[in-house]
Amino acid sequence: MASSQTDSRSRRGRSGAQRLRPPRRRSRLARMWRALTSPYYRYRNAKVIHSVRVGLAMLASILATSGIHIPHGIWASVTLLVVIGGLQHQGNIRKKAAERALGTLLGAVIGLVLIVVQAITGSLWLTYVLMSLVAAVCGYYAIGKPGYVALLAAITMCIVAGHGDNLIDTGLWRTLNVILGIVIALVFSFALPLHATYSWRYSLADNLRECARVYAQVANGVHVDNDAQVQTFMRLNARLVQLRALMPSVAKEIGVPLARLEQVQRLHRSLLSALEMLCTGTGSYEQALVRVAFAERSETVRRALLATARALRFGGGRHPEAAQQALRTVGARGEGSGGGDGAAESDQESTQAQPQGCPEPQMQGPYWLSLRVEEQVERLRALLLETEPRWNIERAATHRMV
């Protein structure tokens, strides 16, 4: 009797453990899914995700063409590599795919026309001359804004028509494969999309966080080795250049005019210039004056920089509203009003009122520079708050679903 009760209890224990395992497995899958859908995770592992995406797209193109025996299927694989092989951001991929489709269709039509002319006239020399003329026209337009479309048109013409020795069915199959490659590339670009906006946000946040550190060193009179300062500003300027390259793709992804992003870039560049002047353009006596000039507002400006960086960094996580709240909180602590114009007016009023209280004439330079840094930080914060509903992709997506 005792043994039967023990066996029943053990069976119940095993069944209970089995009932507990699926939720644990589901929790692991949920954590993995949250990691894959996390913007910051995709930003940090962009190269790995891009390589996996290209590999899966290549496999899909091979199966789609070889599996059902589509002739000349290699051109589908070549096309998808051209479209997404060297481009990881969705804004660039859409632009490249549209240009690729336009150039491909134009070149395919020209190639098919050349095949028909060759079939009717039977003159290879006429085909050679016409191909050369088309190549010359495409070469003329290849130097300029429509350059990629013109170049693709000439290349597709050669793929479809060959040197006048291709049949019309060969040209049609090759055209179909190129379009199939474009479709596959677009499908996989929407699987775990890599937005240029993420790179723009997180790189800008890294720079603002490092600016806060440099600003605190200057305000507190911390001695920093010259070589270390050079390395710091090299990193800051390198990110600044990277942000410039991302701006066209970001503008396409979030629908913000490029001129607004240029304002952010200009304020960012001005802030770096002011910090570099503070670090490298003052001697020991001037640095003491800088500490006095910065003593009253240095901690406020440093917190504003960190809060703005935190809004860019964490705004698109589990709580999409956090970015706007963080930026508004910065404005509510006394660093300025919510709008950019009001902030500029309050800064101008403070700059007009305060210099009379400077104890020494030598302090006016550092003091004005400290106000300049504070003004740039506030204007940058206000501009980011204004455009936050666009660059905070997760919050924008939530509002669209609602």
Can you walk me through this structure?
It is a single chain. This protein is mainly α and 402 residues long. It folds into 2 domains: 46-189; 196-401, Up-down Bundle (Methane Monooxygenase Hydroxylase, Chain G, domain 1). 83% of the residues lie in helices and 0% in strands. The protein is built from 17 helices and no strands. Helix 6 runs antiparallel to helix 7, helix 13 runs parallel beside helix 16 and helix 15 (340-353) packs antiparallel against helix 16. The longest helix is centred in the N-terminal third of the chain and has 36 residues, at 2-37. The radius of gyration is 30 Å and the shape is elongated. It starts with a helix and ends with a helix.
- Stretches where pLDDT is under 50 for at least 5 consecutive residues are 15-20, 333-359
Q: What is the total number of structural domains? A: 2
Q: H/E element string?
A: HHHHHHHHHHHHHHHHH
Mean pLDDT: 76
Structural class, from helix and strand content?
mainly alpha
Number of strands: 0
Entry summary:
The protein has helices at residues 2-37, 39-44, 46-66, 74-84, 90-121, 124-142, 147-161, 168-189, 196-220, 226-254, 258-280, 284-294, 298-314, 322-335, 340-353, 364-391, 393-401. By secondary structure, it is mostly helical.
